[in-house]
Amino acid sequence: MIEGIKKMVRSSRLNITLSSVLCLVLGGICLLSPGTVTDTVVGAMGFILLLVGVFMMVGQLLTTGLHFSGMALSGIVIVTGIFLCMKPGAAMSVVIMAFGIVLVSNGVEDFYLSYSIRSASGAHWYSGILFGIIDIVFGLLCIAGGFRLITFATRLAGAMLIYNAVTSIFLVHRANRADQGVVDGKLVRERDA
Prior knowledge:
single chain; extended; mainly alpha; 85% helix
């Protein structure tokens, strides 16, 4: 049984190495061309939405006919899909800005909650002010940053993928050397021929 586990672990090292090489390539693409990655992903999402909208519309026509609400919903999905395909960068910027607006409004709500806690003589009421300030700053960064924030996040993800790939390849190499009886460049056991 132990031999079977050892064999399975050894065979999985090839899979780990191959997935690490893939992570290394994807990480490099994310670092070097984050706009292309974002455009491709958002464009693919737009194409999928476009197809979903068309299937919704055809299904609506085949089952209930020209029902206004169903046709309007499928039309909105189709238009959204087309917009994502045509302007993926702008679409992502709008999404990030919407997140920013939510963060700013939550920050303002945090101020009101802090005031309520203070009015009720609650402890640590000032923490809500700190949370509100952080929410508002993050929200303003999202609103002002838009596409740059997406680019930064894509590059960060690329760096994480490269780190993952390098460390996994290093560990596979170390495990292979340990199996061969070599640890830190020293022969620790000899194999029988």
